[in-house]
Specification:
With 243 residues, this protein is α/β, with parallel strands linked by helices. It has 5 helices and 9 strands; from the N terminus they run ααβββββαβαβββα.
Length: 243
């Protein structure tokens, strides 16, 4: 079956990413490890996702001049404009961002809070273009955010921490919560219960991938859907809002 071939492919991709990540562990400086692991995810995305998109590090601005702060990986269509700074560092217009990814070597309590704070800033950015849902999934009310960890806690512990963040800050999940979380070493994916990755199920805020699916498969499916929906209807950059 085709599904068996694809599942085997992404299982081997996951194994390879773990091996390459472990190799980076010989570096003594944390920044080198972090930058290297971001490069690994970039490499995977470029090798497996549609060629109509670009992946780069940078900052997002909206028409009100609010900014996101530095984002590890911004996913943007090749047909959309971006402001080049130097090398792979760019500024993106909020209206043109398909999704963002924050990459963590380890998702511990401090790193999780940092990621959720970052997602909150991204989701506050004003944008004219949002990804449209259909009868199986909801509209995205703001920019989709993905948290990718090479190592992390159990999925139950991670969901509990996200719920705790929501209650402590008295903010709804749509205002900060990642749409997809990948933890590579434990091989699980968590997603918002919005129908984009798995069928909607009751009123719970998060769902987890079936255990027989590699977490990398979930990342591939989610981003592929984002890109296909983005390309399915025309969007025009409203430059007059930015100048």
């Amino acid at each position: 079956m085709a599904s068996e071939t694809l599942m085997e492919h992404f299982a081997k991709v996951r194994t390879n990413l773990i091996s390459l990540s472990d190799h980076l562990g010989i570096a003594k400086h944390g920044d080198i490890k972090g930058t290297g692991r971001e490069a690994l995810i970039n490499q995977f995305l470029k090798a497996n996702l549609p060629s109509q998109v670009d992946f780069y590090t940078g900052e997002i601005i909206d028409k009100n001049n609010f900014t996101s702060g530095q984002i590890d990986i911004i996913v943007q269509s090749f047909s959309s404009p971006k402001i080049h700074l130097i090398n792979d560092l760019k500024i993106a217009l909020a209206d043109n961002v398909i999704a963002i990814i924050e990459v963590k070597s380890v998702i511990n309590t401090g790193h999780l809070k940092h990621a959720l704070d970052s997602f909150k800033k991204v989701k506050l950015l004003n944008r004219s273009h949002n990804l449209k849902g259909n009868n199986t999934h909801d509209n995205h009310p703001n920019t989709p955010c993905i948290l990718f960890g090479f190592h992390g806690p159990t999925k139950e512990s991670l969901i509990s921490k996200i719920i705790e963040y929501s209650e402590k800050n008295d903010i709804p999940f749509d205002s900060f919560a990642p749409n997809v979380i990948i933890v590579l070493d434990r091989d699980y994916a968590i997603c918002r219960n919005d129908g984009w990755l798995f069928s909607k199920n009751g009123e719970v805020p998060f769902l987890t991938a079936p255990t027989n699916k590699s977490c990398i498969t979930s990342l591939f499916i989610y981003l592929s859907k984002m890109i296909e929906v983005w390309n399915s209807y025309p969007k025009f950059s409203k430059f007059e809002n930015y100048f």
